Amino acid sequence: MNVFSLTASFVLLYAMEVFAHGCGTAALIEHHNASPAAKIAARTSNMLSSCAAEAYYDTSAVNERVTTHFRIYYVLKGPHATTDAFVDTAAKYLEKAWAFHTQTLGMLAPRGMDTSYQYRKSDNSGLYAVEIADIDLIRNAESLFGGSCGGCYGVTIPDDSGKTSELILDNDFRYSTGTMDSVTYNGKACTYLSSDDSLINESNGHYYTQHPDEAIAVTAFHELYHAAQLRYVNFLDYPSYWFEASAVGVEEAGAPSVNDYWAYLPSFFNSAGTAFGSLSATGAYGLGVWYQYNYRTQGPKFDASLWKRFSGSPDSSLETIFAKQLDGDNVDADSVFQDFAQRIFFSGRRSKYLKASARFADDQPSWPAMRLQSPPVSAVQISSTPAFNYYMLKSSSTPDLSAFKGKASIALWNAGKDSSARIYALGGEVRLESFSDSIAAADSAILIVSRLLASDTATVIAKDTLPMRAYPDPWKGASPLCFASLPKDKAFIEIWTRGGMLALREKYSGTGLCITETEVREKLAPGLFYFRAGSHGKTKPFLLIY
Questions:
Q1: Residue 37 and residue 42: Cα distance in Å, rounded?
Q2: In which element (H, E) is residue 444 found?
Q3: pTM, two decimal places
Q4: Nearest partner of 384 among 297, 451, 477, 288, judged by Cα
Q5: Which of 179, 288, 304, 525 could bridge to 106 as Cys pair (CB 3.0-4.6 Å)?
Q6: Which residues of the chain have pLDDT under 50?
Q7: What is the pLDDT of residue 396?
Q8: Are 449 and 404 in contact (CB under 8 A)?
Q9: DSSP letter, residue 429
């Protein structure tokens, strides 16, 4: 394997600097796709050790553990040292991850390299190689990551063909804050950056040095998923935010009690309006919640179908693959994406306004709250896709949606009065201005917009050419009662009973009006009614059933 073909720009920040922990595979991809100048600068300025890789472990004392699908290599002394108990736990979770990925998720099984990367152990048994080592001290770490991996839990390293790989699991889930140490090798003092601080689970405050089983579990599910992804697409040649996002989603699906991914959610939830391909590294990790949504709504094997499509079209974007898969299943991908945008908005403190059955993750109430745009802009648009955004609404200042392309809906709720939000799709005959009274009456009114693809064909706000009408007809009590294509020169509508009695008169402006379901129930009994614009002219029938 030519390690210099796997280079990347990931520079360690020590001591007083910010430290970013995460996936070594992401650091590998980042450095591989960096400019040649950045690679050279990182490699020459971030030397982590002063001697060859063999100086930091006893080449004659490499242990091997064989399981059904894996051969695990490790040492018990030196900077790479682990423990037998650590290895036992790793073997358990690796086998669980293998079964989960290949059976529950329907992914192709990872294919391993014959010769292991770090300890140089050869085996042609077909078992997948896993090595336990200090990731910052693995051979040619400067060429792999441009320096330290920065507290990485693990890394999946492909060979030059991108078809086989191996997994390296960090030996102790510690990282260096700049402390130097040394070992003696052939009479020479070999220095290295020693790991002196523990990685931590931000969801429960557990130090992973004290609870290594938690870190082993999420790393096994996460990194082995990268190995399965390589069966479809080489992530070094075709980088996509979905490599990391889906792997983060898988670790939560496979080890739901750990919740390590919570650390990445604030970045993503603060990035509303940002196209997914432009998210920061931690924001892309947080996008694992989209995987969780797909897992719950489309089924556990849905992501395998996306990777299968990727293999035939590796230059395509995830959103294009996603849309083609759903279109092939006769499902409107834009509507599914809008449903995701609606459901994820009700997280954290807002989760109580979404029915529990509509949540796609059990820990959704523990997530951060999605960022809101307030006050609303005069005109709403999403230019870079895929993305979604949220705007706080006021009846006196509704944004212009006339040029908007994508999907839009409105969410209304009253704190302390009802426990769930009412969500109404906008577009076509359903206009935002029709909800002015409902917006004024609600404690909270939020405009939710999304756009999956950049195509201009996804326009939802269209010119209304249909005749004056009431909708939905029949009205069944689960939405506002709306009236569309009303003449602009009238100021109110009249609603008459079948017996010719005036039941209701409502003012409106523009060409539409919506009456809240509460007001309909209070003022109109079930039955046949007629309405007209103004006090003269022909009436049109509509039916109430509830």
A1: 9
A2: strand 444-451
A3: 0.81
A4: 451
A5: 304
A6: 1-20, 457-465
A7: 66
A8: yes
A9: T
